[in-house]
Structures are given as C-alpha cells and as structure tokens.
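Internal QA ticket QA-208
Title: Verify multi-chain structure generation after dependency bump
Assignee: T.L.

Test input:
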Amino acid sequence: MKKTVWSMCGMCSVRCPIKVEVENGRVEWIEGNPHILKGALCAKGSAGVALIADDERPQQPLIRKGGRGAGRWEPVSWYTALDYIGEKLNKIIAQYGAKSVMMSCRGGPWADFFKTFIHGLGSPNFTNHDSGCGRNVHHASLSIYGLGRKDLIYDIKNAKHLVLFGRNILESLRIAEANQVLDMLDAGGRLTYVDVRQTMTGIKATRFFQVRPGTDYALALGLINAIIKREAYDKEFIEKYVTGFDELVEFIQPYTLEWAAKECEVKIKPLQMFVEELAGDRPRVVFHPGWMLSRYNDSFYASRSLQILNVLMGNIEVKGGQLFPKGAADCGVKGIRNLSSLITQKPADKRADGVGWKYKHFDKGPGLFHLFYDAIETGEPYPMKAMICYRHDPFNCFPDPAAQKRALDKMELLVSVDTHYSEFGWYSDVILPESAYLERESPIALQKGLKPRLIVRQKAVEPKFDTKPAWWIFKQLADRVGIGQYFPYNTIEELWAWQLEPTGYKIEDFNAKGFVELTDKPIMYDRNNLDGKFKTPSGKIELVSKVLTEAGLPSFKPYVSPIKPPEGMFRLVFGRSAVNAHGHTINNPLLYELLPYNTLWINKREASKLGINDGDWVDVISQPQEVTGTIRAKVTEFIHQDAVYMIHGFGRQIPLQTRAYHAGMADQKLQIGLLKEMDPAGGGLCLCESFVEVRRSAKNPKRSVEL
Amino acid sequence: MNKYMIYLNSKRCIGCHGCEVHCKTNKKLPVGPILCEISHEPLKAVRGVPRTEFQFRSCYHCEDPYCVPVCPTGAMQKRQDGIVFVDQEKCIGCMACAGACPWGIPQYNSETGKAIKCDYCMDRVDAGLKPACVTKCATHALKFVTLQEI
Ligand code: SF4
Ligand code: SF4
Ligand code: SF4
Ligand code: SF4
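Actual output:
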C-alpha cells in the first residue's frame, strides 16, 4: 500500500517541511515539500532512512545498573521506566520542592511542551542549549529593538548586499535560506564574508576578509565609523525611530576604518571599497547578526554592532532588508492554542540560574543553562536534584564535559529523552528513547513569516523499536507527578484538535500540502508607521539601552584587543559541516560514509614551522589542564595563523555507536575552564577563548617493525 | 543517440553532497557504492577570494560504451534513448564492466552481489520524473537536460 505523508525533517533543528512516500510500511522516498522547497533537501535529510534502519540507538527504555557512565543498562518496559522516574521525582519534590527539578530542551516550535511540564510542576527552572549557541545574538537584538533574535527575519533573496561575519550560511545549512542566498547572487547581489578561515560560504563571496580571530567587533566598529563619517546612513529613519545616535557618534570617533584594518589584519583598500558598496546598496543591505555566537568575550557587542549597522542602513521592513515575521493576528485570524495557556499561575520561586533576579538583563524565558552548574555545585539559591534533558546534549554543546559531570554527581536523577544515545544520556540514570522523526507525530507549529503558516509533522512509519513520541512520554510523566491536567489529551489527534480549535481548521486541512497558510498575500507593515513595533522600554530602537544601563553595563563597550596566542599555541575555533548536525548525526551510516572523522585545520606556514605535513597525525593539548587528543592535520593557507579549526560534533565516546566511537576529536572536551566563561552582557559562553598546543604526534612512525 | 544529460551549475552548487545521498537512498544502496560524486579542486585565490569549482560525475552514458560489450551475460545494456544500465536480473557480479570502463564507474553492491551504476533513475524518468539527485538537489544546481529539446 502506498501513501504520501506530509512531515517535517528532524535531522537538524531547521525542520524543513518534507513529503514522504511510504510503501508497505517502508519509507521509499523523502523530498523537500514541493510547495515550499521544490523538492530540495540536504544529505542529512535523505539519510533519515538510515536513521530509522539504524539499530545503534536506544531500542527501549533503559535504567542504569552500574556507576554513571559505566554503560551498564537494564532494558525495561515503558511503564517500569516511567514509574521509576515518577517515584523518584515525587520523592525529590517532597524533600526539596518542585524547584529542585530542571528541564532543558533544544528550543524550537515545541518548547511550549517542556515549559508547560516544568512550570506545571511548579518549578521555574526551564532552560535550553542556547547559552552555548545564540544567546548573545538574542540578547543583542533585545537590547536594541526589544525584539528577540527570531523577531526579525532577513529578506536575503531581494537584498543587494548580504554581509556575513562568520555566519557560514551555506554549510550551517537551512535549505530555504541557502536558496535565497544563491538567488540573490544569481540576481547580481553581493556577498561579503568575514571569517578566520575560508568556508563553503566564503568561496561564493564577492568579498572576503580573513580577519585575526576575535576581532569581529573591531571590524564592525570601523564600519560604523566609516558609514557615519561618509554620512551613508538613513537619517530620516534614525530621526524617526532611533535614540542614542549622538552617543554612538561620540563613542565611535577613535575607531576609524584604518584602525580596524590594522587590528583585524586586513587591507584597507578593499575595506574602503566595501564601504562604498554599502553606501550604494542601502537600504537593501543585510548585516547578519550571527547565529551561533557563543565565541568571544565581546561577541555580544559584536552582534550589537552588526545590528547598529542594520539600523544605519535603515533596512527595517524594506524589501531586501530585515522584516517583521507576521503571525496569526496580522492575518486577522486566531492562532493555535498552546499548552502553556493552561498554566494560570507561574511558579513563584526565583530561578536557580539567577536569571530574572541576579541577572535582570537576561531573557527569563529559558535563562542560561550553564549557570545552573553553580547552583548544582553550591546548593545556592537552593539545591538542584533532578535534570531532564529533552533532545539536548549538554556534554556535546557545552564546554568541558568532565567539569559538568563533577557537578552532576551532586544530583539524584538525570533523565535523557532522545532518539539516539547522547553523551549526556550515556551518563544519565534513565534513557527514554524517543521515536525517530519519521516514526512519530509532533504537535502543530506556527511558522511566522511574510506568509505565516501552520505546519504539522505526521508519522510516516511505525516505530521500528519500542520507542515513543515526546507528546506521549510527557503526558505519561505528567500523569505520574500529578499534573496530567496540563496535557488534556490521550491521542495526538485529540491534541491536534485541541490546538486547532480556535483557528477553525481541522487536521484534514493539512492533507493537501502539509501546511495551512494563514494568508495568501505576503503581509508588510507600513514602514512610515512602525510605532509600537519595537518593544524596548522607550518603544524606540535604543542604541543606548535602558536595560543595559540599569544593569550597570555599557551600551558601547570600549574595544579590547584579543590576546595573541602564546608561541606554539593556537586559538581553537570550531564550526559545522553540511553533512552533519552537531554530534547527533555522526553515527548515521550514510553520513559517516561522507565524513568519517574531522581534521585539524592549521595554517601552512605555522605547520611547516612545527614540521607538520598535510595528513600527519598531530597531538592537540588543552590548557591549563592537559587533555590530549590525536587528530589528522589539514594543512591549508586559508586559515589565519593564530587559529586552528575543527568541525564540531566528533570524538564521541559511546561504545554502542560503533562508527562514531572515538572517530575524530571533540573541541568541547579541550575547552577546559570555559564552562564559567560567559559574556557578562550577552550571557553566551566564550567557546573560542581557549588556546591549544599542537605537536606532530609520535603516532607518525618513522619505522614500523611488524612482520 | 543520447537523449539526456545531467548538468551542474557550479555557481549554485554548495558542495553539500546531498545529491550523493539522494541517489543512494533512492537506490537503497548500502555503505560502499556511490553512484554520483561531487568533487572540487583545491582552493585558489581569485581576486582576493579563495575559490573553487565543483564537478558532478555519475556515468557518462558513452555513445559507444566500453562496459556493454564485455559483459558476459548481456546485463549491461544501452537503451534507445542512450541510457546505459544494468539489468539486475541478468547481472552475475563479475565486475568485468568496471574493469572495462576507463573511469571504473560501475560499482559493486555488496548487499545484492551485483553491479550497480547510474541509470539516470530510468524508472523515474519513464514515469515523467527527474533523477533523484536532480529532484532533490539542495540548491537546484543540478539540471536534467533532454538534449533533443535544444
Ligand atoms: S537542513 Fe537538511 S537536515 Fe536540516 S531540516 Fe533541512 S533537510 Fe533536514
Ligand atoms: S560505465 Fe563507463 S564505459 Fe559504461 S557508459 Fe558509463 S562511463 Fe561509459
Ligand atoms: S558485473 Fe554485472 S553488469 Fe558488470 S559485467 Fe558482470 S554481469 Fe555484466
Ligand atoms: S545536492 Fe546540489 S548543491 Fe548539493 S552537492 Fe549536489 S549538486 Fe551541489
């Protein structure tokens, strides 16, 4: 029997809409939703079939038998596992209060679910992975517009000039966005790319600046200076919507373009030409404010400066600029119902990570995960005893897993809910295996945009193993801790119907295309009347942020030059490949075939000083403690001499993942001490603020005396 | 005469290797055989920007294929429209075809014990569709060209 199933890809967090052809209970074909993506899909998207087939994933609930991380598991039934967690949670709650339980996820359209669970329980401690990802960008955007990072979208397709500071947009891949970039280039648009190394994105650029690591902020400051000096900014827009411009003009004086060129180690001529281009291309210029910007100790200010450049371009709500994503209300219709609407009383306790009371300038929503480690270690403001991670692997996404483990040993219950063995899951007490995305349904999600839509993930095939979807798992858990009322459904059909009720749509309305559009024409606001759209305290775009000022933080931070690595050492930077999504796809047989291990990129001149040839094994040694790993060197002239680079996600240590086990190296394991290094203004971790030593490894034998 | 070819617009290609996996999953291939391949030259700086070009290679579907006459069972065949393909029923997996092909294009499928190669997804083409790699190319950089149309 053949059927077509509309779904959403789950191989990475982009969640591209897909169309799945199923025959006799087997996935025969997956393509990008033809109505949205015209079939396009990345390698991971197709490799979804290998994920379902893969038996190197948890096949039923597992309860730990040996010590944490020892890898001895007792396979149990779902009811045994759920009862076990329920009992433990109830005991912990009775002794320490609900607030001692925390819940983390990976953000995204279904975060409402997990937030409802933990808030329903009476704990304020909802969090996610973002302090190791986009928090600096989010907080930078909030400080300027009062809007989060996702509250403005980029009309790249219609831009004349896209400027990317390390945003490797064609490798950290989002299918629709990548196509917009290529469409823009096909239409003659310009792409300026700034990074410490060349990337797949940089090779398509019209301009490329290879900067010294950690100097993004300097370059952005120099550009602001030059744009203002040349009066190449939108005066009318600034007059109308912006406060703090005069303070900016005063602050920016010393940071000339010439100064920036020197600081960043780039040539001044091309920089000047770049400024000329910007002057001609505005307002259809997009400065991407960054995605994963938990990098340097001034990344928050770098992202702020990129947003200031956007403001100077006057690119808000113009074609080819930044646009407000529209929601249901903009279409004059009602949106879907969220579970969190059932929570009438927010938890009264203050958050254990200090966000909202100790750190008032941070977004309270998910807080900052890494700050929980302080609370876990010290028991202040109160003891933390249980952690549930849904799809989030803190050992993969935060630095120094060894330090994390030491803290977690103070906790009584660690639960991992995931489709695969995560490094955290392997250390946890209970693994609840979620069904792979093709084997499960997800709640209906709203995707905002010029044409907002409702979209749904339907189940393509039955689970191969004894795994369950998240909507079922959390309903079951909720029932066991007495908060079942917040999950008012028994089946996914009931949940969908409940979500859709205010909208008037039925799940059958998704049968034609997999989504429902809330409008047929793109919606734009009147650019001359954007009052009320900026959610800062003053309602204006605030270059001097009231929130930052109140927190005692500068809106314009004087630039501090990053320290150069000591002799023989390098700044460790990391990035993504288009064929893997962080760590969780490394073990996929079809993706492993494409990229079985990562390499260490090292500058050619530096390599020759160290006697390292392309393909040699090298030892990478962390500071201050010695963590050593061995990896193959990729010697190239297209990386700055101060940096070495590796693709993130490798070096996994789960024996049951036979392909990924010890394949390549994990950058986060070398980031000793960085768990507590956060940008105090942006809340993001400073993951590129570590140095490593590189040596030619003894593993390169001159002789081998085997028979 | 050959009727079809696959063309890669290198300007749009982002080297994501999606096409390779699209092909493999469509043909249900295990780890091992890869029927189409994206490759690129080492980077070279052009006017300040280190660049490269991408190439796409599957099978050339030669006008006069080397692989067809050497096949002892007649499994390797060329169709009227130029598509060179392996008849899986007849193939005995001797891999003489791979030896004869100057580019070693035919691959061994360890799961079936037979040869496999790009056949422009002829079942899809016959159904009015495009090859898997072209249909799902992440950036629409691949085009399936019907030569008679030019
Ligand atoms: S980018 Fe690729 S892996 Fe990510 S959702 Fe889209 S198709 Fe799936
Ligand atoms: S397999 Fe080799 S010889 Fe045969 S058609 Fe293809 S390219 Fe030509
Ligand atoms: S492997 Fe199959 S197709 Fe190739 S020569 Fe042998 S029988 Fe013919
Ligand atoms: S899928 Fe398209 S963009 Fe990706 S490597 Fe293949 S041809 Fe290039």
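Spot checks passed. The two ends of chain B are 14 Å apart (CA to CA).
Status: verified.
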